[in-house]
Design goal:
Blueprint (H helix, E strand, L loop, with lengths): L6 H7 L3 H5 L14 E9 L6 H24 L4 E9 L4 H13 L4 E3 L4 H13 L3 E4 L14 E3 L4 H14 L4 E7 L2 H15 L4 E2 L3 E3 L7 H18 L4 E6 L4 H8 L9 E3 L15 H8 L3 E5 L9 H13 L5 H17 L7 H14 L20 E10 L2 E11 L8 E4 L3
Parallel strand pairs: 1-2, 1-3, 3-4, 4-5, 6-7, 6-8, 6-9, 9-10
Antiparallel strand pairs: 11-12, 12-13, 13-14
Length: 423
């Protein structure tokens, strides 16, 4: 039997648990003889349109598992975290199949899946079968449903839409032509940003909605080029921006856009689904185009990290495992695994209501290195967001992501602030 960590101990650990957990380099995948496994299911889009985010999440969870198991060993506990990772292929139907496989293994707590379309596909099954879903990537506001079994450790896109609209206004953009992914996430984020930008006297013109998982974006880009040409003629190129609500397909779209007449003349803006994509800094047409158009977008979290502090140390460990900059989703995944693992040390119950209560209590006790305490709203979504905006900049013959602005909207009623970050 593993050591059950008391609630009093957890309150004390809230300030030090991540510090204790960030010193190890390896961890066992199973508990010592006579110990207890904490088996956590993971649904990630390791292939398909959202694969870069899935890969980042897998790297972060791998680091978290090592750190958690080292922590358990350091306090003499025989608990050990074991991950069962399934690839959803960025496909809602596959995500449901994989959740059913985890259910057949008796797993009651699952981190994932990736896109909001995947979460929409599995939510009802999770509710009916008593499985708790901890999402670190889904942000569609329509999935904020009070009383279901879904917790989202990322904020709904109402916050991101406001941040983007504010940034566009401050950047001198008065008219936007959107190109967006035609699913629950893309449709909602496009509409929310259009409304928020309209409230700031901006104009969102007709754009191009495309079908996810396409293989050829030439027609999408040709139509977008025509629309941007018309916008330039009436608005002036310095006032026009393209707003791209995409996943990995941003790379294919930009590769095609590099050959167009009008799309290279205006600035491009992104979202949390394509900011920090590694494929947009690899040598090639897409990276050159992204740098030429000053492609800029937001990710959650405060990326002004100190390498001498716990947050910076953990960030670098994830980055080294991944081989590129981790995104905000992956940092949320790191913290989510800690909260899920420690929740399971507090209850032997597999009953969903008891697990939900235990998880909710744990979010208020654990202070993470990247996002502080996870404040959940009535629907179980994060309610204390902060965004950082990154831009693709040319760096000699290559390109890199550069942190340009922090957008602080953490407190309700507080006026938003853009804080430029020195290069």
């Amino acid at each position: 039997m593993g050591i059950k960590i008391s609630a009093i101990t957890l309150i004390i650990l809230a300030a030090v648990v991540f510090c204790c957990g960030c010193t190890g380099t390896e961890a066992t995948a199973v508990a010592p003889e006579g110990g207890q496994d904490i088996t956590v299911g993971v649904l990630l889009p390791l292939t398909g349109d959202f694969s870069e985010a899935g890969e980042a999440g897998q790297a972060a969870l791998g680091v978290a598992a090592v750190d958690i198991n080292d922590y358990f060993a350091s306090i003499g506990s025989d608990y050990r975290v074991r991950l069962v990772i399934e690839d959803t292929q960025t496909d809602p139907a596959v995500a449901l199949e994989k959740l059913q496989e985890l259910d057949n293994q008796g797993i009651r707590m699952v981190i994932g899946p990736g896109s909001s379309a995947e979460l929409e596909a599995i939510r009802t099954y999770a509710d009916r079968h008593g499985i708790l879903i901890v999402s670190t990537m889904s942000t569609a506001p329509s999935l904020a449903i009070a009383g279901d079994n879904v917790f989202r450790f990322v904020p709904p896109d109402t916050f991101q839409a406001d941040a983007t609209a504010y940034y566009l206004e401050k950047d001198g953009i008065t008219a936007v032509v959107p190109v967006w992914r035609g699913d629950i996430w893309g449709d909602e984020l496009r509409n929310l940003t259009a409304a928020a930008f309209g409230n700031r006297s901006g104009t969102v013109l007709d754009g191009v909605r495309y079908i996810p998982n396409s293989e050829d974006y030439s027609n999408v880009v040709a139509e977008l080029d025509r629309m941007v040409g018309r916008a330039i003629a009436t608005q002036g190129k310095e006032n026009v921006g393209v707003y791209a609500v995409t996943f990995n397909e941003a790379t294919a779209i930009m590769t095609a856009a590099a050959e167009t007449e009008n799309l290279t003349q205006v600035q491009w803006y992104g979202c949390d689904g394509n900011t920090l994509l590694g494929s947009l800094t690899k040598p090639g047409d897409a990276a050159r185009f992204a740098a030429q158009t000053n492609f800029t977008g937001p990710v959650i979290g405060d990326a002004t990290l100190n390498p001498d502090r716990d947050d910076g140390v953990i960030y670098l460990k994830i980055q080294n495992r991944l081989g590129r900059q981790p995104d905000g989703y992956s940092l949320a995944s790191y913290e989510a695994l800690w909260i899920v693992a420690l929740t399971e040390t507090q209850t032997d119950s597999k009953d969903a209501p008891e697990l939900k209560n235990a998880l909710t209590e744990m979010t208020g006790k654990i202070r993470g290195p990247f996002f502080s305490v996870v404040d959940l709203d009535a629907a179980g979504d994060r309610s204390n967001p902060r965004y950082c905006f990154w831009s693709v900049k040319a760096d000699g013959d290559s390109s890199r992501w550069v942190l340009v602005v922090r957008y602080d909207i953490r407190y309700e009623g507080k006026s938003p602030k853009l804080r430029p970050i020195s290069a």
